[in-house]
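Give me the fold.
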Amino acid sequence: MLSLNELKQIQLSRQHLTEKADKHTACRGLNGFQAQFTVNVEHSLRIRCSEKIEKAGYGGGLVKNWTIRGTVHAFNQADLPLYKHQSESNPYLSHDWGKAVICAQRNCKISLDRLEYIARLIVDKVSSGVTAREDIKRECYAAGISESEGAYAFDQWGGLLRPLCERGFLCYKVQEKKEFMICPPYTPMERDAALLEQARRYFTHFAPANVRDAAYFFGWTQAFAKEMMSKLPLLQTAIDGKQYYYLGGLKNDYPDIPRCVLLAGFDQLMLGYQKSESIYLQAAHLRGIFNLAGIVMPPILLNGSVAGKWQKKGSKLAFTLFGSVAEKDKKIIAQSAESLWGDIKKLEWITA
């Protein structure tokens, strides 16, 4: 039987927070990184990778697309078949826009023929080197699409660009500027095989974890999570009265829990487990990290527990603490910041 501290040691190691890995290994094992804000991807890699992560080039070999939980993730380009697997609603390279679910949800009144024309126009423009979202939009207006058509195609929630990405026509580049690329050709995996491989990676690199954790991470029902788990050669252990499951042997010793880690926004350590039962985050501080707007703030992990959150704007770094923190621990937090960034000119301490 493991203690909660031992569980943290294993999870932190498997998530490469105490045992670093190269960029592609980290992305592969952790099923990519949630990427609504690509600065979070950069930071997630920086705190996990054995190589230096440079802002200008860290996206090389990665792509950004809609994957797990229907959210945008950055992942290895080689994993396109896994995350863009066969889907009835978004068939690979299909221009059958009658099945564009998002179109129906947004009350789109554009004819299917016109949708196909606009979709092909967008892909042609990206193929010709017009890759920035706003530039594509301008080119489409210049080609004669109407204001209402443009409002749908470039809707902030995805519009027509989203199914073009989901069907394998386009991918986002992994960088701060919103820019597209033609998706490299691939052969999609079958859905069940793809989901099973994603589950295998989860129970190798997030686990030990329980059923509720896995269901939360993937956005599955617990019944479906159990179905996937039944197909894997899982081992199990009891921790604090709950059953936890994992793949691969456990070592006799793991690195100690770090004094401090400044986690990323939308970090996999927060998203990987049922948030209301997190062993890292007290329930009283849940809304300090998971706010009601759906944003997952970047936490301060102090001695294995979330002690607050951080925000960096230029050379100013603000730490919001969830209660009293000893001066010696503040020094540890500040030292962690100094090791990550060399441009901090002002530190601010806020008590929530």
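The first strand starts at residue 33 and ends at 34.
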